[in-house]
Amino acid sequence: MIMTNITTMSGFLLMGFSDIRELQILHALLFLAVYLLTVAGNLIIIIITTADQHLQAPMYYFLKHLSLLDLSFISVTVPQSINNSLMDNSYISHDQCILQVFFFTSLAGAEMAILTVMSYDRYAAICFPLHYEVIMDPSKCQWAVIAVWLSGSISGISYTTATFSITFCKAKIIHQFFCDIPQLLKLSCSNDYLAVIGVAAFMCAVSFMCFTSIILSYIHIFSTVLRIPSAEGRSKAFSTCLPHLFVVSFYISTGAFAFLKPTSDSPTAFDLMNSIFYTVIPPTLNPIIYSLRNETMKEAFRKLLLGGKFTRKKAFLSSC
Questions:
Q1: Comparing C-alpha atoms, which of 306, 280, 307, 304 is closest to residue 55?
Q2: Residue 13 phi/psi, 5° resolution?
Q3: pTM, entire model
Q4: What's the chain's Rg over C-alpha atoms?
Q5: Exposure string (b/e) for 158-178, b if CB count within 10 Å is 16 or more?
Q6: More exposed terminus of the chain, fewer Cβ within 10 Å: N or C?
């Protein structure tokens, strides 16, 4: 396809990992394996946190929504990339790209919000255990989750509107395996991308406030945990907090690096690998991290594997 046709076509070309057919097939198979593992892990968490009476506390209620977000998040980019590699066709239509940007930014914003809510939940549980049920009552948990999804939607609408108000006048080649906003900005020939910069600056400020809130929560959590007299109590508290802190740190650091790093005209393998770190790895690791470090989750998972029936007694968050 000649350059003029690439410039004038309605869609975009996603230049992913390789032009070599064998490597494209390998990439598709690896992504398919990771995708199926992620879908299975997050679906299991959604099922057992819904069905098991022992997993109706706020922590598991928020974990269920994190899994739902992760399941949706990885489904935005990976299936399209698998299809492109298998079909040896890097084309993505303009409408598909719009939807991908909208859902990607919406779910990314919502994930940041749910991680912040989860840190506050752990703060309330560990620092104010006697008042925990009052602080995190079912109605407040429901409103928190509504706020999470609304904040994600606002982020998605803002980014999508600003991004696709740009006039794309360069060759519509995106050096990524999905419609990446920094790569889209490179296709503009004028200053009409400044709206995107403004949205990104605002969202960065909001993300920084969320990150600051998370850090302050964990400062209080760790100072409280260290005062627990029993080693078993400290170990139990750390086992629920450290995985969450790891997920937050990994997700924010890789995402911030990708969006703050200047885009290059010749993207390297490192750029592609970093995009995998914040689009594919967190949704895959979350079910493993939260399941393997939690005895109640492991017991519920064993019950599911053995075909045991979950009892649905009235629990703290059964109404959510």
A1: 304
A2: -110, 125
A3: 0.85
A4: 21
A5: bbbebbeebebeebbbbbbbb
A6: N
- pLDDT tens digits, one per residue of 228-262: 777 776 776 677 677 777 777 777 777 777 666 66
Collect contacts of 167-174 with beta carbons under 8 A, ≥24 apart. 167/192, 169/7, 170/7, 171/3, 171/6, 171/7, 172/6, 172/7, 172/9, 172/11, 172/12, 172/13, 173/6, 173/12, 173/13, 173/15, 174/12, 174/13, 174/14, 174/15
Q: What is the pLDDT of residues 139-198, one digit of tens each?
A: 999 999 999 999 999 999 999 999 998 888 777 888 888 998 888 888 887 677 788 888
Kindly give the residue spans of alpha helices, DSSP state H, lying in 13-93.
21-51, 58-87
Tell me the one-letter amino acid at 228: I
AA identity, residue 9: M
Residue 57 backbone phi and psi in degrees, to 5: -75, 160
Contacts of 202 (CB under 8 A, 6+ apart): 158
Q: Which domains does the chain have, with CATH numbers?
A: 3-305 (1.20.1070.10)
Closest CA to 14 of 5, 6, 3, 4: 6
